[in-house]
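Supplementary Text 2. Reproducibility record for the structural model of the 249-residue chain.

All settings were left at their defaults, and a single model was retained for analysis rather than an ensemble. We include the record here because the model underlies the residue-level annotations in Supplementary Table 4.
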Amino acid sequence: MKDHATDAHILAAAYALDALDNGERQAFEAHLHACETCRQETAEFEATAARLAAAVSQPPPAAAKAQAMAAIDEVRQLPPRVPAPAAAPALSDILRRRAVPLALAACVAAAALGGVTVWQVQNAQHLKQQAHQAQRHLDTVSAVLAAPDARTVHGKAANGALTTVVSSDRQNKAVFTAANLPAPGAGKTYQLWLDHNGTMHPAGLIDHDGTVILTGNPADAGAVGLTLEPAGGSPQPTTNPLLLMSLPA
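Retained model, structure tokens:
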């Protein structure tokens, strides 16, 4: 079995995440000058990393401040509980009277922003879950790419998409990468298949450029297929394959 673990085409994700050593980075940057597919894939990985980084910072809704300020006028203002001074200078009275509405305004604003905080916490938890899922996906992809028995094949679909499959029997995983993949159209999606002795088994969906982990058992598959199917996928292919790429034995 031929070892393709050092194939330059599989280093785009590690390059985008600044995970290469100096020698690997220089070699991959030299490779980028001659490989349009890797340039585009690297740009996509960098954009995805930037979106994940930006996701942890979410401003409160624009209407939050206006709602808090509007609520201030409806709050009953109560006098503060302070001991009567021996001498009540006029200036002190004025300052205390002004402090009351300001304190109430702060309380109302805090209550309103408390609701915003709950929203932010819930939203942050959702974003954190998405980030964890993305990290698990990246960890799985990285494990396949770095596997000692990783095998790489490249292909071109009938619709012009450039494709790469990296598989590992040891990991019993395979990843599929597509570049220049045309939009599938309304109500349609691209579906991946694993060919087991002439029988096609569903292996996941993809509707835009990127990398997906194939489902199923790629270790015993002889080929990877790509078809255009109704949204949600099909149990069996309903159209002619756009791609049928043999996997190395």
